[in-house]
Please model this.
Amino acid sequence: MTEAEFIAALRQLPLHPAARGLDDDTALLDAGPLVVTTDTLVEGMHFLPTDPAHDVAWKLVATNLSDLAAKGANPEGILLNYPLGDDAWDRAFLEGLADVLTKFNTRIIGGDTVTLPPNAPRILTVTAFGSDAAAPARGGAKAGDALYVTGTIGDAGAGLAIALGKDGSLELLAAYRRPQPRLADGRILAPHVHAMMDVSDGLLIDAARMARASGVAVAIDLARIPLSAAYRAFSGDRLAAATAGDDYQLLFAAPQDFVTDATPVGTFSAGFGLTLHDSGKPVPLPSSLGYEHAPRG
Amino acid sequence: MTEAEFIAALRQLPLHPAARGLDDDTALLDAGPLVVTTDTLVEGMHFLPTDPAHDVAWKLVATNLSDLAAKGANPEGILLNYPLGDDAWDRAFLEGLADVLTKFNTRIIGGDTVTLPPNAPRILTVTAFGSDAAAPARGGAKAGDALYVTGTIGDAGAGLAIALGKDGSLELLAAYRRPQPRLADGRILAPHVHAMMDVSDGLLIDAARMARASGVAVAIDLARIPLSAAYRAFSGDRLAAATAGDDYQLLFAAPQDFVTDATPVGTFSAGFGLTLHDSGKPVPLPSSLGYEHAPRG
Model:
């Protein structure tokens, strides 16, 4: 598509008033204090060349909304930096974009389109804005807090293996390709928890980051890591689940007696570092705690 | 550099309080109504593989600040989406980033780093935030207004030709590699003009865009287009100057008797479209009015 065609298509999507109809180089955002987050997805690194464009659009927006969810924010809208490609891909991308914006009640604020040199991998960026956020920091966990996680862990990691050719359920594939940001949970949790972040790179690595930012140690009980029935049928490997990325669940620190549907998976204590056990029996740390910007495709 | 090394280096640059020390996935921005703009630069399209990393950093930030200048905004800070590469390039980029942030009193708010597949062109995105903007729209020009432009036009286009191997002055090369956003001019002009935008894709194409957004016609006098002494020495070609991109001057509509240092280069009238003349003598429109997302490297 040409830039003009693409922008005309964007104008058919929900537009934020700040976008001023996408007629300007800038947006004018007047929504009180804002939570701002940005994520870039690279073809061959964060998504596979074979992933449908529709799902890439979904994932690009959903990963950003997941960061807003972890701050308890209400999504205001997004900026999109998009490399124009072939028509079919662009159209499928726009369909996925419409789906994810509608599903999570989010709007277009602005963006930029570019043309890439031939054979360059697609690189897409979304910047998301949220309002009305309690915005717990990553570094607020206290010694004595429990570490909780929403939903189930490991589904997206299994979904990636399935996208790469392994046998497995469509449910797991969908967890990888169409993550669901926990916006409603984030709104409820954010005012009450001590620290919160989303699980994007893997439960272990993200828990270690929360502990480090908070100046405390964390011990994680592998036996408590919540697995879906689909994941149990796929492999049930808890260590693999805890080190796979792309879960987009919420990870938070709160008192031991905190009332929540989320699962307690660990405890914070004075000190520093991460330890792992299985119902009390020590487990050595794996060589990789999660995803750290190395190729995965 | 690794992501951790790069973020550690960013922490040595001026940080916006919203960045919360770059310890979180999100920034918290509380600065009243905000002007937001984002630009992506692609290696081989918007900059040359041979352009120094130092200058790429400058240009990436400066092009975004130029959009803020056109709204009369005060720069608050930037988000940076950066592909980690080889150490020498990353370090030179960080030096250029420090220079441009310091020069224009701008700060880091946050961002994202990614790793690219081997041999992928670099793609860099900056999103800039400005506050306290009068924010004239692009579409406010009125029939009877004059069209004005700050500074001189065509220098960066000549600089690109020089970067590609032509003989010419370092001054012109600097205009291409180190554009100077007209932030101070924008602050002064924005509350008083009817419409304003920056000249990023070429004077003719950007003037046509302003006229279209405003629902009026514009006639441009080639003879009035302001050229630098360096550009006159290089070629002095006014049509080439008016269709080259990367000027990052401010283009604005204001009454004919508006008092300004900027140069009146045209007039708006009822109707639609763009016409060109040379001191009253009609000039046919060139086949390209400016840069429209086609390869240029």
About this structure: The two ends of chain A are 27 Å apart (CA to CA). The mean pLDDT of chain A is 93.
